Write the structure tokens for this entry.
Amino acid sequence: MKTIFISMAAALLAAGAHAANTSRQSAPKGPLIPAREWAMIRQIAVNYDLDEERTWLLAAIRRHENGRPGLEFGVGGPMDSGHPSHRYRDGYKSFYIQGMWAAGTVRKHYKGDLVEFGKRYNPPYPTQWSNGVSSLIRRLKSENGGKLPGAKPAKRKIEFP
């Protein structure tokens, strides 16, 4: 009786694990960056005069850092560190502030060498960081057919209350 119970339990566990794996594999995945964030990234890139290569980089940084409100682009170290990029915890305002700091860093320091740029953006692990960002740039381009999504916006001032 004990053997039958153990065999049945093992079979149920195996069936449950298979069902969980199947549902994970078949579940549709969303885009790496949602359309709303792409629109904000494009606006920031235009305002900072980033070319297409640097816009892809900015988008990849967003996805790679993938931080919560206040750290969306990984700017400024730990939250509440006093860094000016941590002014807002509101997702909308924070995204723009973090994105603008990241765009300024890209504009000023990216010279075409991702590992060298990684030494500035993520000093402890520049090679790993640049490999991850490089992979994300390829994936983002593939996902979007090699074209930046959405229409290129006009420059505009972004203000917060």
Summary: Residues 35-143 form one domain.
